[in-house]
Specification:
Helices cover about 50% and strands about 15% of the residues. By secondary structure, it is α/β, with parallel strands linked by helices. α2 crosses α6, α6 packs antiparallel against α7 and α7 packs parallel to α12. The radius of gyration is 22 Å and the shape is globular. It holds the Pfam family ZnuA. Keywords: Metal-binding, Signal, Transport. InterPro entries: Bact_metal-bind_prot9 (IPR050492), ZnuA-like (IPR006127).
Amino acid sequence: MKKYILGLVLLVCSSLALAKSNEINVVAAENFYGSVANVIGGKYVHVESILNNPDADPHLFTTSAKTSKAMTNAQVFIFNGVDYDPWSKTLLNTKNKDGKRSVIEVSQLMNITSKDANPHLWYNPQTFPTLAKKLVVTFTEIMPAEKAYFESNLQNFLKEHQKVLAKIEQLKSKTKGVTVTATEPVFGYMADALGFDMVGKDVQWTIMNDADPSAKALAEYQNNIKDGKVKVLFYNSQVTDPVTTNIQDLAKKNNVPVVGVTETLPKGVTDVNTWFLSELDAIDKVLK
Protein backbone atom coordinates (compact mmCIF):
# COMPACT_ATOMS: atom_id res chain seq x y z
CA MET A 1 0.00 0.00 0.00
CA LYS A 2 2.82 2.37 0.91
CA LYS A 3 4.51 1.62 -2.42
CA TYR A 4 1.23 2.36 -4.20
CA ILE A 5 0.80 5.68 -2.41
CA LEU A 6 4.43 6.61 -3.02
CA GLY A 7 4.02 5.72 -6.68
CA LEU A 8 0.86 7.84 -6.90
CA VAL A 9 2.61 10.82 -5.28
CA LEU A 10 5.51 10.52 -7.69
CA LEU A 11 3.08 10.32 -10.62
CA VAL A 12 1.26 13.48 -9.49
CA CYS A 13 4.51 15.33 -8.90
CA SER A 14 5.87 14.31 -12.29
CA SER A 15 2.60 15.47 -13.93
CA LEU A 16 2.88 18.86 -12.23
CA ALA A 17 6.49 19.15 -13.33
CA LEU A 18 5.43 18.29 -16.90
CA ALA A 19 2.69 20.92 -16.78
CA LYS A 20 5.24 23.51 -15.68
CA SER A 21 7.63 22.51 -18.47
CA ASN A 22 4.79 22.95 -20.98
CA GLU A 23 4.18 26.55 -19.92
CA ILE A 24 5.95 29.65 -21.15
CA ASN A 25 6.89 31.82 -18.19
CA VAL A 26 6.01 35.44 -18.92
CA VAL A 27 6.70 38.46 -16.73
CA ALA A 28 4.94 41.71 -17.64
CA ALA A 29 5.92 45.00 -16.05
CA GLU A 30 2.28 46.16 -16.22
CA ASN A 31 -0.86 44.07 -15.78
CA PHE A 32 -2.51 45.24 -19.01
CA TYR A 33 0.39 43.82 -21.02
CA GLY A 34 0.17 40.68 -18.90
CA SER A 35 -3.53 40.44 -19.75
CA VAL A 36 -2.78 40.43 -23.49
CA ALA A 37 -0.10 37.76 -22.96
CA ASN A 38 -2.65 35.62 -21.09
CA VAL A 39 -5.17 35.92 -23.91
CA ILE A 40 -2.69 35.01 -26.66
CA GLY A 41 -0.82 32.31 -24.75
CA GLY A 42 -3.88 30.81 -23.07
CA LYS A 43 -3.20 27.43 -21.47
CA TYR A 44 0.43 27.49 -22.56
CA VAL A 45 1.58 30.51 -20.54
CA HIS A 46 2.12 31.38 -16.91
CA VAL A 47 2.00 35.17 -16.54
CA GLU A 48 3.16 37.28 -13.63
CA SER A 49 2.41 41.01 -13.75
CA ILE A 50 4.50 43.31 -11.58
CA LEU A 51 2.27 46.40 -11.51
CA ASN A 52 -1.08 44.83 -10.66
CA ASN A 53 -2.54 46.82 -7.76
CA PRO A 54 -5.31 49.11 -9.03
CA ASP A 55 -5.20 51.13 -5.80
CA ALA A 56 -1.48 51.90 -6.00
CA ASP A 57 0.32 54.78 -7.67
CA PRO A 58 2.43 53.19 -10.46
CA HIS A 59 4.91 56.07 -10.27
CA LEU A 60 5.88 55.09 -6.72
CA PHE A 61 6.73 51.46 -7.52
CA THR A 62 10.11 49.95 -6.61
CA THR A 63 11.38 46.46 -7.33
CA SER A 64 11.63 43.75 -4.71
CA ALA A 65 13.21 40.34 -4.18
CA LYS A 66 9.95 38.78 -5.37
CA THR A 67 10.06 40.52 -8.75
CA SER A 68 13.73 39.62 -9.20
CA LYS A 69 12.92 35.98 -8.43
CA ALA A 70 10.17 35.97 -11.05
CA MET A 71 12.67 37.25 -13.61
CA THR A 72 14.98 34.27 -13.09
CA ASN A 73 12.28 32.06 -14.61
CA ALA A 74 11.04 34.52 -17.24
CA GLN A 75 11.28 33.32 -20.82
CA VAL A 76 9.47 36.43 -22.03
CA PHE A 77 9.60 39.89 -20.44
CA ILE A 78 7.28 42.70 -21.55
CA PHE A 79 7.73 46.30 -20.45
CA ASN A 80 6.56 49.73 -21.56
CA GLY A 81 9.76 51.75 -21.95
CA VAL A 82 10.21 55.52 -22.50
CA ASP A 83 11.02 55.89 -18.79
CA TYR A 84 7.56 54.85 -17.60
CA ASP A 85 9.02 51.79 -15.89
CA PRO A 86 12.76 52.57 -15.54
CA TRP A 87 13.13 49.82 -12.95
CA SER A 88 12.60 47.33 -15.78
CA LYS A 89 16.14 47.99 -16.96
CA THR A 90 17.38 46.82 -13.56
CA LEU A 91 15.27 43.68 -13.78
CA LEU A 92 16.83 42.89 -17.15
CA ASN A 93 20.13 42.45 -15.35
CA THR A 94 18.63 39.47 -13.51
CA LYS A 95 19.93 36.38 -15.24
CA ASN A 96 17.51 33.81 -16.57
CA LYS A 97 18.27 30.35 -15.20
CA ASP A 98 18.47 28.79 -18.66
CA GLY A 99 20.10 31.81 -20.25
CA LYS A 100 17.27 32.51 -22.70
CA ARG A 101 14.78 35.36 -22.57
CA SER A 102 12.79 37.26 -25.19
CA VAL A 103 12.36 40.94 -24.34
CA ILE A 104 9.53 43.05 -25.74
CA GLU A 105 9.85 46.79 -25.16
CA VAL A 106 6.49 48.16 -26.23
CA SER A 107 7.81 51.65 -26.98
CA GLN A 108 10.20 50.20 -29.57
CA LEU A 109 7.43 48.00 -30.93
CA MET A 110 5.39 51.18 -31.50
CA ASN A 111 8.40 53.12 -32.83
CA ILE A 112 8.32 55.56 -29.91
CA THR A 113 11.90 56.42 -29.02
CA SER A 114 11.83 59.99 -27.73
CA LYS A 115 12.12 60.31 -23.95
CA ASP A 116 9.80 63.32 -24.24
CA ALA A 117 6.98 61.16 -25.63
CA ASN A 118 3.84 60.55 -23.62
CA PRO A 119 4.71 57.24 -21.86
CA HIS A 120 1.11 55.99 -21.57
CA LEU A 121 1.44 54.08 -24.83
CA TRP A 122 -1.25 51.51 -24.08
CA TYR A 123 -3.98 54.13 -24.58
CA ASN A 124 -3.03 54.24 -28.25
CA PRO A 125 -5.77 52.00 -29.75
CA GLN A 126 -3.15 50.26 -31.92
CA THR A 127 -0.79 49.27 -29.10
CA PHE A 128 -2.56 46.16 -27.79
CA PRO A 129 -3.18 44.57 -31.22
CA THR A 130 0.43 45.28 -32.20
CA LEU A 131 1.66 43.62 -29.01
CA ALA A 132 -0.73 40.69 -29.51
CA LYS A 133 0.70 40.02 -32.98
CA LYS A 134 4.26 40.21 -31.64
CA LEU A 135 3.39 37.73 -28.88
CA VAL A 136 2.17 35.20 -31.45
CA VAL A 137 5.61 35.34 -33.09
CA THR A 138 7.44 35.17 -29.74
CA PHE A 139 5.39 32.30 -28.32
CA THR A 140 5.61 30.38 -31.60
CA GLU A 141 9.41 30.59 -31.49
CA ILE A 142 9.30 28.88 -28.10
CA MET A 143 6.48 26.42 -28.90
CA PRO A 144 6.36 25.98 -32.71
CA ALA A 145 3.82 23.15 -32.48
CA GLU A 146 1.22 25.52 -30.96
CA LYS A 147 1.36 28.18 -33.67
CA ALA A 148 -2.22 27.54 -34.80
CA TYR A 149 -3.44 27.82 -31.21
CA PHE A 150 -1.72 31.18 -30.67
CA GLU A 151 -2.98 32.49 -34.02
CA SER A 152 -6.55 31.43 -33.17
CA ASN A 153 -6.32 33.31 -29.87
CA LEU A 154 -5.03 36.35 -31.75
CA GLN A 155 -8.03 36.36 -34.09
CA ASN A 156 -10.39 36.17 -31.12
CA PHE A 157 -8.57 39.04 -29.45
CA LEU A 158 -8.66 41.21 -32.58
CA LYS A 159 -12.35 40.50 -32.99
CA GLU A 160 -13.01 41.80 -29.47
CA HIS A 161 -10.70 44.77 -30.00
CA GLN A 162 -12.69 45.70 -33.10
CA LYS A 163 -15.51 46.64 -30.71
CA VAL A 164 -13.18 49.23 -29.15
CA LEU A 165 -12.28 50.66 -32.55
CA ALA A 166 -15.95 50.74 -33.57
CA LYS A 167 -16.85 52.58 -30.36
CA ILE A 168 -14.15 55.17 -31.04
CA GLU A 169 -15.54 55.79 -34.53
CA GLN A 170 -19.06 56.01 -33.15
CA LEU A 171 -18.04 58.58 -30.54
CA LYS A 172 -16.21 60.87 -32.96
CA SER A 173 -19.47 62.56 -33.92
CA LYS A 174 -19.63 63.75 -30.30
CA THR A 175 -15.95 64.16 -29.49
CA LYS A 176 -14.20 65.62 -32.54
CA GLY A 177 -13.03 69.14 -31.79
CA VAL A 178 -14.46 69.18 -28.26
CA THR A 179 -12.14 70.91 -25.79
CA VAL A 180 -11.14 68.80 -22.79
CA THR A 181 -8.40 68.70 -20.18
CA ALA A 182 -6.94 66.21 -17.69
CA THR A 183 -5.09 66.06 -14.41
CA GLU A 184 -2.36 63.95 -16.07
CA PRO A 185 -1.64 62.93 -19.69
CA VAL A 186 -2.71 59.31 -19.03
CA PHE A 187 -5.56 59.38 -21.55
CA GLY A 188 -3.62 61.40 -24.14
CA TYR A 189 -3.38 58.89 -26.98
CA MET A 190 -7.00 57.86 -26.70
CA ALA A 191 -8.06 61.52 -26.54
CA ASP A 192 -6.17 62.07 -29.81
CA ALA A 193 -7.86 59.05 -31.37
CA LEU A 194 -11.24 60.49 -30.41
CA GLY A 195 -10.37 63.87 -31.93
CA PHE A 196 -10.58 65.82 -28.67
CA ASP A 197 -8.86 69.19 -28.39
CA MET A 198 -6.74 68.61 -25.27
CA VAL A 199 -5.67 71.79 -23.42
CA GLY A 200 -3.60 72.36 -20.29
CA LYS A 201 -0.94 69.83 -21.25
CA ASP A 202 1.83 71.71 -19.45
CA VAL A 203 -0.02 71.40 -16.13
CA GLN A 204 -0.75 67.72 -16.78
CA TRP A 205 2.91 66.90 -17.37
CA THR A 206 4.00 68.88 -14.34
CA ILE A 207 1.59 66.97 -12.10
CA MET A 208 2.69 63.66 -13.63
CA ASN A 209 6.30 64.49 -12.76
CA ASP A 210 5.35 65.12 -9.11
CA ALA A 211 5.96 68.87 -9.34
CA ASP A 212 3.76 71.88 -8.68
CA PRO A 213 2.49 73.87 -11.69
CA SER A 214 3.48 77.52 -11.87
CA ALA A 215 0.89 80.00 -10.60
CA LYS A 216 0.42 81.39 -14.11
CA ALA A 217 -0.05 77.98 -15.75
CA LEU A 218 -2.42 76.80 -13.05
CA ALA A 219 -4.50 79.99 -13.26
CA GLU A 220 -4.90 79.60 -17.03
CA TYR A 221 -5.79 75.94 -16.55
CA GLN A 222 -8.41 76.78 -13.92
CA ASN A 223 -9.88 79.60 -16.03
CA ASN A 224 -10.48 77.15 -18.89
CA ILE A 225 -12.70 75.23 -16.48
CA LYS A 226 -14.40 78.27 -14.95
CA ASP A 227 -15.11 79.90 -18.31
CA GLY A 228 -16.80 76.81 -19.72
CA LYS A 229 -14.17 76.24 -22.40
CA VAL A 230 -13.47 72.73 -21.11
CA LYS A 231 -16.31 70.26 -21.61
CA VAL A 232 -14.80 67.20 -19.86
CA LEU A 233 -12.11 66.68 -17.23
CA PHE A 234 -10.23 63.38 -17.26
CA TYR A 235 -8.51 62.45 -14.03
CA ASN A 236 -6.16 59.67 -13.06
CA SER A 237 -8.09 57.88 -10.33
CA GLN A 238 -4.95 56.12 -9.11
CA VAL A 239 -3.09 59.33 -8.32
CA THR A 240 -4.68 61.84 -5.96
CA ASP A 241 -3.13 64.79 -4.17
CA PRO A 242 -4.36 68.23 -3.05
CA VAL A 243 -3.79 69.74 -6.51
CA THR A 244 -5.75 67.10 -8.44
CA THR A 245 -8.47 67.02 -5.78
CA ASN A 246 -8.91 70.79 -6.06
CA ILE A 247 -9.10 70.50 -9.85
CA GLN A 248 -11.86 67.89 -9.61
CA ASP A 249 -13.75 70.03 -7.09
CA LEU A 250 -13.47 73.05 -9.39
CA ALA A 251 -14.80 71.04 -12.35
CA LYS A 252 -17.78 69.77 -10.37
CA LYS A 253 -18.51 73.27 -9.07
CA ASN A 254 -18.62 74.53 -12.65
CA ASN A 255 -20.69 71.60 -13.93
CA VAL A 256 -17.87 70.15 -16.00
CA PRO A 257 -18.26 66.35 -16.28
CA VAL A 258 -15.44 64.37 -14.66
CA VAL A 259 -14.37 61.01 -16.10
CA GLY A 260 -11.94 58.80 -14.19
CA VAL A 261 -9.32 56.76 -16.05
CA THR A 262 -6.76 54.36 -14.66
CA GLU A 263 -3.14 53.60 -15.46
CA THR A 264 -3.54 49.88 -14.80
CA LEU A 265 -6.44 47.45 -15.11
CA PRO A 266 -9.14 48.40 -12.59
CA LYS A 267 -10.09 46.06 -9.78
CA GLY A 268 -12.11 43.09 -11.01
CA VAL A 269 -11.24 43.67 -14.68
CA THR A 270 -8.89 41.25 -16.42
CA ASP A 271 -9.50 42.10 -20.07
CA VAL A 272 -8.09 45.22 -21.75
CA ASN A 273 -10.92 45.50 -24.27
CA THR A 274 -13.53 45.46 -21.51
CA TRP A 275 -11.50 48.13 -19.69
CA PHE A 276 -11.39 50.45 -22.69
CA LEU A 277 -15.04 49.95 -23.58
CA SER A 278 -16.02 50.87 -20.03
CA GLU A 279 -14.11 54.16 -20.19
CA LEU A 280 -15.47 54.95 -23.66
CA ASP A 281 -18.99 54.27 -22.42
CA ALA A 282 -18.38 56.74 -19.58
CA ILE A 283 -17.45 59.40 -22.15
CA ASP A 284 -20.53 58.59 -24.19
CA LYS A 285 -22.75 59.17 -21.16
CA VAL A 286 -21.35 62.60 -20.24
CA LEU A 287 -21.37 63.98 -23.80
CA LYS A 288 -25.07 64.24 -24.55
